[in-house]
Amino acid sequence: MMIYYYLACFIFALGLVGTLIKKDLISILLCIELMLTSVNLFFALFSKSLGSADAQLQVFFTIIIAAAEGAIGISMIMALFRKIKSAYPDDILIYSE
Amino acid sequence: MPVQYLANLSLYVPELVVVATMMGVLFLESTYRENEKNHHFVFFLTLFGLLVAAVSVVANFTVLPTEFFTHSLIHDSFGNLSKLLMIFGTMASVYLSYQSREIDQDLKSEFSAIALGVLVGGMLLSSAHNMLTLYLGVETLSVLSYALAAMRKNDEKSAEAGLKYVLYGGVTAGLMLFGISHIFGALGTIQFTEIKLALEKVDGAKLAILIPSFLLFFAGIGYKIACVPFHMWSPDVYEGSPTPVTAFFSLVPKVAGVAALVRVTFSFFTVNVLLNHTWIALLSTIAALTLTIGNVTAIGQRSVKRMLAFSSISHVGMIILGVLVTSDEGLRSVMFYLISYLFMTIVAFYIVALVSEQYGNDYFERFNGLASRYPLMAILLTMVMFSLSGVPPLSGFVAKFNIFAVVIEKRYYVLALFAALNSVVSLYYYLKIVRLMIFKEAESSEEIRGFGFVNQALISICSVPVVLLGIYWERVLMWAQGAKLFVP
User: Fold this and answer.
1) Cα–Cα distance for residue pair B81/B87, rounded to 1 Å
2) CATH number of the domain at A2-89, please?
3) pLDDT tens-digit readout, B96-133
4) Residues of A in contact with B134 (CB under 8 A)
5) Is the Cβ pair A25, B163 closer than 8 Å?
6) Which chain A residue has the Cα nearest residue B149?
7) Are B224 and B142 within 8 A, CB to CB?
8) pLDDT tier at A97 (50, 70, 90 boundaries)?
9) Do B397 and B405 contact (CB within 8 A), yes or no?
10) ipTM higher than 0.90?
């Protein structure tokens, strides 16, 4: 059982680090999806070991919302790409503190 | 069981009305032909639906506090009052969007539809009573807000604002879910009541898991109310989005987030001493940082909208101060703060929207000499700025005073000092715009189209509460005291 926990932790860390260091928008979006997916693993794992169905239910909602978020993220990258012809944050982010 | 479900449905009528209105708007929008420009019916339908929702919220005021839908939602007067505030905020921004020329004519119905969707998320969040509904509320609020921020899709800034919002939002949603999953793993339940019971008897090893989990869980809420470690998106999104959207963002998601924060704080962190101390330490640090960073960064801004964004960040800091005292008086002062903040923000954004629309940007210089050209508007904006910085006898002063009172009563002297110093700092940037309006020559003499009779009258009406709440505050405060939180 523990191995699954470590696997989920690893995937989550992969996603989190990826969002911080990746240099193009699509990869960042993929890393966010990775984070959400690893949380699904946590939920499934905990609800199996605790014998409660509450969290398994949450998995479905998380999947749906992750899909919605991915769709809206992709559409926004498309909108920006049409203007700037680039999907790299370094070219795009004009604001700075 | 099904019978009980149906009986409880009456408590859910406001949300259902809003959802029905949203669908109605979408259907009505699709009946317009391509060359038809004026979508008046959509606008009236939206306002009518919101009015019905407000009435049904008020009608539910008399129902005794209860949990419903198998403990997933809760009905109490605090949640109801926040719903009412959110509905009014939505009404104001929908009206603003209808007036606005920043939003394309054919996207106005979309604004109404999406704003209604966000409102549903906010209502869900303010009455959430288990982790699943809380998460769904946060996400309904977020996912639709992303689309709102990118409303002007042909404008680089707007698209970029939307994208930033999506990326920040995605990461914080991930962190929050990580927190929720580990809270579930440690306690074995997602219901707030059961979590509270379980928290009473947790021991060392579980606390070691729970404390980091709750910190991560806070990321999701903190991101929605834009407090300090999670505030970076807010100024960019505020500046990039069209002004009605900005007004909407500074009203609805904030109220919803604060409502969720209050509920979470009162449900979880009153039972276990160690958790309570950790949470209050966290909130104090965040409140102090939020106040300071919000105010100090606001000073150097060139755009008024961006300045208002930073100022709203610092207002959130004040509100968190009211939350962290975890007393009934604190709750009352938070509610009063939200009410007065609502009206001040509506007036400020209304005037800024009309001015910036005329000139195409919202830099401070655009307000030069407004006092000689539109005296009434200049006076009202001056009044609101004074109120936002907390000068008596306006509502902002009473709101801040109440927060100070509860904070000092709990002997958090350092925090009170922080808040007081920050109020002084905030005077500088709020009065900058007043100085420009009164003492500078106007840049041009062209009339500002937005300042017609109707708009001036509406702005005046909206600013009446700013004064009245400052003078007759006792009555409102007693009324806000009725906003009790129900913690079963």
Assistant:
1) 10
2) 1.10.287.3510
3) 988 888 887 778 888 999 999 999 999 999 999 989 99
4) none
5) yes
6) A76
7) yes
8) very low
9) no
10) yes
